[in-house]
Specification:
about 240 residues; two-stranded antiparallel sheet; alpha/beta; six-stranded parallel β-sheet; single chain; about 50% helix
Length: about 240
Amino acid sequence: MAKENQQGEKKEEQGNSSQLVQKIQALGQTNLPQAPDSNIHVLSIIGQVEGHVQLPPQNKTTKYEHLLPQLIAIEQNPKIEGVIILLNTVGGDVEAGLALSEMIASMSKPTVSIVLGGGHSIGVPIAVSTDYSFIVPTATMTIHPVRLTGLVIGVPQTFEYLDKMQERVIQFVIGHSDIKEEKFKDLMFAKGNLTRDIGTNVIGTDAVEYGLIDEVGGVNEAMKKLSEFIDQSKGQEDQVIQ
């Protein structure tokens, strides 16, 4: 009888281990230890945003197909009342980044982002897609034009496609932040700020001064702001019920 119990326990452990591996493969993360009554979900976007092209294994990536089902699950889960987005990204696939930005912006639950280290390239629209955004003082954000490679593009259709995609990025950013279109374009098309690139490297305080990010701050400030939003949301729900 004892042997049967031991075998049963081993099978259960193997089953749990297999489920854990499947979860890592499917979503890129496991369930982190949280307080039983935690009502806030933390979503991290780290490294390079991987979209339609698979990046080399040595690259630290965030796969957008991992985040899409998580965002849907968060929206549907009544226990989750708010979301913190942690950003430390060099950018990546433009369409994948815009898809994530649009999904985050369209969520009904309060969202707050924190730019840690870097929120470069397509990380800019993701950072501003939340209800409120923070950036730590030492973080930077690189704003540059959309491009595929360093080669000159000779096909008119390709150039037109990139031009329209770039306009989509610009309109999204100015629509979800307080930065003026003229200022954002000046930063995007500035020359000489980076060694072999076109664009501007913006540090934390400057990002706030330009109206790109709402406030300089870290985890403490972000949690307080999200708690405010959650309380406001609950207050509005109570008014509707009454």
